Amino acid sequence: MMNRNIVLFGFMGCGKTTVGAELAANTGRELVDTDKLIEQSEGKSISEIFRLHGENYFRDREHEVCLELSGQERLIISAGGGALTFRRNVEALRKGCELVLIDVPPEVIYERLKNDTTRPLLQCEDKMAAIRELYARRDSMYRDAANYTVNGDQPRGFVALDIMKAVGIL
111-131 in b/e burial notation, b at 16+ Cβ within 10 A? Predict the structure, then answer.
């Protein structure tokens, strides 16, 4: 277990990046963000990739990244909000990773993201309705994919500690 990767996933705004940074600092592991890897390899933002090539193209790049990272060791992987709603990504990552759902209720996500303009799926008039609708579609898929679920509605240090306990690092 000690060499297995830890994949952080959940709804956008759940804290994958901030908790991932905390975990990396606490464990000496490298933090890798799947969306940032895709942006770097494509030379475009996620929003641009969606606009220019569509969601299917993006999801194929995302799957390639999941396959690549699953073969490595001792990483903290921050997976994009939709990555683990796809069975092929769950199966790829399960091979070398512990999958940790950071669970945060829709109301908290809204508060965290209400002024965010960078997320393609929230570029709409009623962000709360969009969050609730997407959350309802993804929640059961997230829970099915998770090896562990932690409460993300607490300070990031506590979330990181809960994850370390769950995966047996602590």
Answer: ebbeeeeeeeebeeeebeebb
| Contact between residue 7 and residue 20 where contact means Cβ atoms under 8 Å apart | no
Direct distance between the N- and C-terminal alpha carbons of the chain, in angstroms, rounded to an integer: 12
d(CA 8, CA 97) in angstroms, rounded, equals: 10
Q: What is the pLDDT of residue 69?
A: 96
- Which parts of the chain have pLDDT scores under 70? 1, 120
Q: What three-state secondary structure class fits 168? A: coil
Amino acid identity for residue 7 in this structure: V
For the question of whether the overall pTM of this predicted structure is more than 0.70, the answer is yes
- pLDDT the model gives residue 115: 84
> d(Cα 53, Cα 86) in Å, to the nearest integer?
19
